Fold this protein.
Amino acid sequence: MIALRRRQFSAVLAGGLALPALLPARALAKDTALPVPASLPAAAKAAAAKNEPLVLLVSLPGCPYCELVRRNYLLPARKASGLHAWQLNITDRTTPLIGFDGKTTTAAAQISAWKAGFTPTVLFFGSRGQELAERLVGVAVPDFYGAYLEARLAAARKALLALR
């Protein structure tokens, strides 16, 4: 039993380490960045006005997994269906950001307050800053990531409707 768990862990680890090597060089281009909100309340209210959650990607510059989530899931959904997806850089300690409490902070401080220090993490918020669905942390199995994201979006949309 323990040997089987070790083999499964080793297989997942090996797959995760190999993933960045499988991404084409152009997949790491800077043209795939999501917009960065200046105000979380304004971004959340705009999303809620369209009956959508605010989707925030906690990202790290140079993170190939963050790039995979942006390029393959969030950017296409943003373009195709108008998903309100934004990103916050976990290392940004200088750019002002208005938090859900109305106070000025930074992305790094806000991410720390949310205890969302692992990248990539996708968060789903309502108009008042309440989390609407379980966080999507990491990219354990890339083949199923789209299904995990869709399930979280469905849960967030359902929770958003329940708040009305």
Summary: The chain has a mean pLDDT of 86. Helices lie at 2-22, 40-49, 64-81, 107-114, 145-163. The first strand starts at residue 54 and ends at 59. The chain is about 45% helix and 15% strand.
